[in-house]
Amino acid sequence: xxxxxxxxxxxxxxxxxxxxxxxxxxxxxxxxxxxxxxxxxxxxxxxxxxxxxxxxxxxxxxxxxxxxxxxxxxxxxxxxxxxxxxxxxxxxxxxxxxxxxxxxxxxxxxxxxxxxxxxxxxxxxxxxxxxxxxxxxxxxxxxxxxxxxxxxxxxxxxxxxxxxxxxxxxxxxxxxxxxxxxxxxxxxxxxxxxxxxxxxxxxxxxxxxxxxxxxxxxxxxxxxxxxxxxxxxxxxxxxxxxxxxxxxxxxxxxxxxxxxxxxxxxxxxxxxxxxxxxxxxxxxxxxxxxxxxxxxxxxxxxxxxxxxxxxxxxxxxxxxxxxxxxxxxxxxxxxxxxxxxxxxxxxxx
Length: 349
Known about the structure:
single chain; alpha/beta; six-stranded parallel sheet; 10 helices
């Protein structure tokens, strides 16, 4: 398909109320076409917690009107002459949370921070019919992975895979995953797939215990139900990845679960303030770091592992036409554990 003969339409957030299920279906103008771009006909798009943060301007003021969604899988329908990565028309591809970058630049990046492409055009996400993206950030989907399963891996999956891999998750590691939700369940799945000696799922309530054990966790720790958990399990883990997005979590107790030389990685990003690291209270050698999404190469590595080990996220497919209801259900904690929007039929505005 040499020329664009299709419209870019999607669910648009017009103001903060859009997070309450008030997105509006309408046409939008994608970034100006460049010969390193790829146009994707979207078949699936995962719903990520970041979508809700963006729609309600939780982290920063959103650039309304906005179309969210950064767990995109579909079919390449237009491939620029300068595209990289071996992407072919009709090939099955995906795009994650990163869709452009200021290559070779360092320091603050206003283009990335404000949700625009490097050429100044706005970015639009996957709650729609088509997506345009620089080919550097487009990855091929392995045949062994279903599109619905691949979609939430584009952000949620790699957000957990990247820090696990970076910190040596594998044989000999005892790993804790704090928060068993859309992000955290990927932590359990990938820690197990990477061959960790022990995987501990940590949450406040017992409700997700059975699910976590089915995902592969060796132990489920419900902190509300074990008053002495911080003492009982102190210094028992070599690596912890925390997905909780609240400043109210007991960070000092969580970090106390690490053995000396252990690493604590924070991936949850709170809206309600700043997380403080309890370094002065610990008085031993530990590492605390943050991690955010993953590079295209890390996404490819993750997909290869998922294909090899048969990693399957726990998902529920929802028609794209029901996106407004799905984001409300997501906010209310009904997802077990990721919703994936599916384009099945034309959508009436």
